[in-house]
Design goal:
The chain has four helices and no strands. By secondary structure, the chain is an all-alpha fold.
Amino acid sequence: MAIELPDDLIARERTAWTEIQEGRLTVAAALAVHEATPAFAAREDVEATRLAIEERLKRLVRHPEPEAAAA
């Protein structure tokens, strides 16, 4: 089952990942992802676990597929 992540969650992770790479991760950026991930997992229409969501999110942002990175 593919996990369809919301755009705002992806954007939060991208912001945090950019800050991590630049050596300036802020509490606000980390907290934004930290709070949004379990909130998404708790939705009734989401069957994936929080862990699966976090894994998918990090894979999507930090290790994108070549065709997704080019888009």
